[in-house]
Amino acid sequence: MRIVAVRERAVPIASPIANAYIDFSRMNVSVVAIETDLVRDGERLTGYGFNSNGRYAQSGLLRERFIPRLLAAEPAELLEPGGANFDPEAIWAVLMRNEKPGGHGERSVAVGILEMAIWDLVAKVAGRPLHRLLAERHGDGEPDPTVSVYAAGGYYHPGKDEAALVAELEGYLGLGYTCVKMKIGGVPLTEDLRRIEAALELLGGDGSRLAVDANGRFDLAAALACGEAIEPYALRWYEEAGDPLDYQLNARLAERYPHSLATGENLFSMQDARNLVRFGGIRPGLDILQMDPALSYGLTEYLRTLAAIEAEGVDRRSLVPHGGHQFGLAIAAGLGLGGNESYPGVFQPFGGFADGFEVRDGEVALPELPGVGFEAKSDLFAVMEAV
Ligand code: MG
């Protein structure tokens, strides 16, 4: 059993939306296909991967460093003992040959893309849906039958007023979501408070059904001022108030803000996530951690992250991965996490879940297909097959 080809293509994931920091109209992603010499149903068994939204395609790093390393490895180096399947941990070590520790940059995204394809492949070789394979290997044996998902939206858009925001969020409720998230930090606080109050009115005043996301926009003073202003709403969480690497800011905010804070989508390694828990004032049982396995060296590193933060007293139900993709959903179900993000209607075809699997009461189920389940999302799989 060996890898015979690895292909990569950068494709658009452009969406006409903006948060407090970036607009997404020029965003792209890398899609990879890892082809093996195994044949199933008359076709070569192939694993697929892509990077999550929010970071760009990694064509250069993939083509110059990581794909050549994978192809140069001895086939046996990539297999588990006995040779029955590929070994994600061994492959991770091959990918990271000649890479110094620290300074993670965006190589964590490039490795994460290949890693997604490797896990898709490993689950396909085993003939198991990834969420079941993960529950058996790294969870409590049985995956969660459904995963709690929330609709992330509420982006800024030129000319979009409160009525348009409420109409958007109402649309998500109509799709079966019970919790929604909206952007803040892109306009003055008084204006954001009006937006939040309009959203809360739609939700019957129930703050536990609304999260807000500042995308790292605030300095400490602005983060505290916003925290004080939104405290009475008792929101589901207050996300990325300050720069994702400013652990002291998060710790100071956590001393004053009594409800849940959320962060982690821009942390790309086990070390970064563990530092956040150790030095960022994370309150176990209250705060939410959002590391995205597709951006942070893949699932192999995510398992290390999980072990490291559980050792620091954080329960895995506090993890709600960023990204809104099927890989995150399978991981959340298999490992028994607290939920998964979802972006109804944007970041297509990479965002969203299997065809015909509707959200009901804020929960979504997974298809029982070998691998991550990409073959059950026809628009995404068409893009993958073309690679
Ligand atoms: Mg966010």
Characterise this structure.
By secondary structure, this protein is an alpha/beta fold. It folds into 2 domains: 3-127, Enolase-like, domain 1 (2-Layer Sandwich), CATH 3.30.390; 137-386, Alpha-Beta Barrel (TIM Barrel). Helix content is 37%, strand content 16%. The protein is built from 12 helices and 11 strands. Strands 4, 5, 6, 7, 8, 9, 10 and 11 form an 8-stranded mixed β-sheet that branches. α2 (88-95) packs antiparallel against α3, α5 (162-174) packs parallel to α6 (189-202) and α7 (220-230) packs parallel to α8. The longest helix is centred in the N-terminal third of the chain and has 20 residues, at 107-126. It is globular and about 60 Å long. The structure holds magnesium ion (MG). Magnesium ion is lined by residues 213, 215, 239-240, 265. Magnesium ion (MG) is lined by residues 213, 215, 239-240, 265.
Shape: globular
Distance between the termini: 22 Å
Which cofactors or ions or other ligands sit in this model? Answer: magnesium ion
Largest pleated sheet: 8 strands, mixed
Give the tally of structural domains. 2
CATH superfamily of the largest domain: Enolase-like C-terminal domain
Strand content: 15-25%
The helical percent reads 25-40%
Rounded to the nearest angstrom, the radius of gyration is 20 Å
Overall mean confidence score, pLDDT: 95
Number of helices: 12
For this structure, the CATH topology of the largest domain is: TIM Barrel
State the low-pLDDT regions, or none.
Answer: none
* CATH architecture grouping of the largest domain: Alpha-Beta Barrel
**Text of the CATH class of the largest domain:** Alpha Beta
The chain-level structural class is alpha/beta
The tally of beta strands, per DSSP, is 11
Oligomer description: single chain
